[in-house]
Amino acid sequence: MNARTVTLLDVARAAGVSKSTASDALQGAGRVAEATREHVREVAARLGYRPNSAARRLRRASTGAIGLHLPQTATRLDYYMNLAFGAVARAQEEGFDVVLLAPATGTHEPLASRVDGLLVIDPEIGDPAVPGLLGAGIPVVTGERYLGSAPAPTGAVICDNSASLTALLDHVHARGARRPALLAPADTSAWAAALHSTAGAWGRTHDVPVEVRTVSFAATPREAEEATLALLAQAPEIDAVICAPDGAAPGVLHAAAARGRAVGRDFSVAACVDGAAVRGAAPPVTAVDLRPSAYGHACAELLCDILASRTDPATVRTHRWALEARASTLGPAG
To answer: HTH lacI-type domain spans which residues (predicted)?
Structure first.
């Protein structure tokens, strides 16, 4: 026999508050003291309370869904799959379904009637859907800032991409690299623009030029291999390559091997995005762990907080990353 469903009244009784106070505390509404609000949420979590999403939708005349827009090139990328899972998990905690939007979505009124809010991840200049999404008349949270001209999003969750590339460059330099290179997409997104500007700034600060080659946003290992082979043919003194696109770094390893470079000894390879492809490479590749599932969770949480009036519009939150050093950069200084 299934256990009885925990009700709002059960939560109120266990927390020692009225039913209306419990409801306001869980929805982020009303004039409830913060200590009381936290107490009620802790009790609800301990009891395993799940809100009646259908009833909540009726009370607020909502659709019970939020939309998720990913870059047009994201369909095969491990990073975005994990990000989407994180967003779905957090949205479901609030009783929301997540609708993955088709790339062509860009109309205003039909979209606003289908979802309560939007998550727009890594918006790129040139993506024809983004201006319409930002102007749809509903709350929008972007994962990273949008560099184009369009209505400002309601909120954003950002990573310090300049700091993460700086950490990678510092790391390979400490391992002995003196002529690093970067394979990065064109600067049509906040992420890519930060990589380009940081490479130049780091090179000037250290008096070590960083060779930059442009590859596509979703470069395949084959594209990264071809770009690296061309790079090493033109500048054989290059002794480290940092690859930005998700999953493309194994192509750099193949190119290095083809040129007789000993990766992890006299040649370093690193990646701006961690994932299965770089962890399982031979040798495993040093990478920045952007914690995509947690990032998706954070983006959905901000949107849910805005929809429930728990935080102010125009809120910007930051997301933490971590550098994972592996055998591909353990050089003479190791």
So the answer is: 6-60
